[in-house]
Design brief:
Largest sheet: 5 strands, parallel
Pfam family, one: DNA_pol3_delta2
Protein name: DNA polymerase III subunit delta
Mean pLDDT: 90
CATH class of the largest domain: Alpha Beta
Low-confidence stretches: 320-324
Number of strands: 5
CATH topology of the largest domain: Rossmann fold
Strand order of the largest sheet: 2-3-4-1-5
Number of helices: 14
Organism: Novosphingobium lindaniclasticum LE124
GO biological process, one term: DNA-templated DNA replication
Shape: globular
Order of helices and strands: HEHEHHEHEHEHHHHHHHH
Radius of gyration: 21 Å
InterPro entries: DNA_Rep/Repair_Clamp_Loader (IPR050238), P-loop_NTPase (IPR027417)
Number of domains: 2
């Protein structure tokens, strides 16, 4: 794969996209489907840039091109908007709103600015509120000429069948160990070999989880999570250790990274579990999915959040123990 691409792996998806651009009948709506952290966001932006690139010219910067529009979570309030403007971490609204989609649709009344193609990225589409979904559906049913939609979905099943049926699916695969190693060496070259190995083992094929593992120093948390998942925690001792490892006032990004790592651990154990444990793993995973959707915007107490994560892991390991 070309070195100027900002993602690793996903060779099949990229070749499929290039083939579609070069065809006479480019589909107008694409569903980029795969778990969090697989590189869908970076892929979508460079794919959009390739789509609008003028013949004979270099691929433009997707952040600067007037015919690439990105709908994503907005800052939660004015204070968070200031943090974003200053380049600081900021909290976002829970959903992509109907107003965002309607504003995008109003833009579609005009022709593309610099060529005959325009790209609309919705990141992620499975976080749109109900009104936004209905508004988008109308645009997908009657797309303006030259307009192409890229819908990112961590959980495609959350999208309406009427949305999915209008999209061509582009699936994103987990990365292998060599590809994860490449991502870490590229983005975190200071990480030592032992840390890289631990991050790759915890990542379950997700470069996002691997990078978070290193950036947020999640090695101790991961070890305790796996111990709870495989041994249970009837006396709450391991959950207490997990809370201590997380810290009294952890950064929001560290908490979210721990949530994603717990979800990956449950998903990885699922194919190897007994039928009875599979049900518990699925239930715990579903609860973590809900928690992951709420955590970026709800003001959860950090100690209670990590105890809830530990409780869900314990409930998957021990039939008699339920999450609290």
């Amino acid at each position: 794969m070309s070195e100027d691409l900002p993602f690793v792996g996903q060779r099949a998806a990229w070749q499929e996209w290039l083939a579609a651009i070069g065809s006479d009948r480019m589909h107008h709506a694409w569903l980029l489907a795969g778990g969090k952290g697989l590189g869908k966001a970076a892929f979508a932006r460079v794919a959009a840039a390739e789509l609008v690139r003028a013949p004979g010219e270099q691929r433009p910067d997707p952040a600067m091109h007037p015919d690439i529009h990105v709908l994503e979570h907005l800052p939660a309030n004015d204070d968070e908007a200031k943090k974003k403007a200053e380049g600081k971490p900021f909290q976002t609204k829970r959903n992509i709103s109907v107003d965002q989609v309607r504003e995008m649709i109003r833009r579609l009344a005009t022709k593309p600015t610099m060529g005959d193609r325009r790209a609309i990225i919705i990141d992620p589409a499975d976080d749109m509120e109900k009104g936004a979904v209905n508004a988008l559906l109308k645009a997908l049913e009657e797309p303006p000429a030259g307009t192409y939609f890229l819908l990112l979905a961590h959980q495609p099943g959350r999208l309406l069948p009427t949305i999915r049926s209008r999209c061509r699916v582009l699936r994103f695969a987990s990365l292998d160990e060599a590809e994860l190693e490449e991502v870490i060496r590229r983005d975190l070259p200071e990480a030592d070999a032992e840390t890289r190995r631990a991050a790759i083992a915890a990542a379950q094929g997700s470069p996002g989880i691997a990078l978070n593992f290193i950036q947020h120093d999640l090695g101790g948390i991961h070890r305790l999570m796996m111990q709870i998942l495989h041994e249970g925690d009837a006396d709450y001792r391991l959950r207490g250790s997990l809370a201590e490892e997380m810290g009294a006032r952890p950064a929001r990004e560290r908490q979210l990274a721990a949530l994603e790592m717990a979800r990956a651990a449950l998903a990885n154990d699922l194919p190897h579990a007994s039928t009875a444990q599979q049900r518990r793993l699925i239930d715990a995973h579903g609860a973590l999915v809900t928690l992951s959707a709420q955590a970026p915007t709800y003001n959860f107490d950090a100690g209670l959040l990590i105890m809830e994560i530990g409780g869900l892991l314990a409930s998957a390991a021990m039939p008699r123990e339920t999450a609290r």
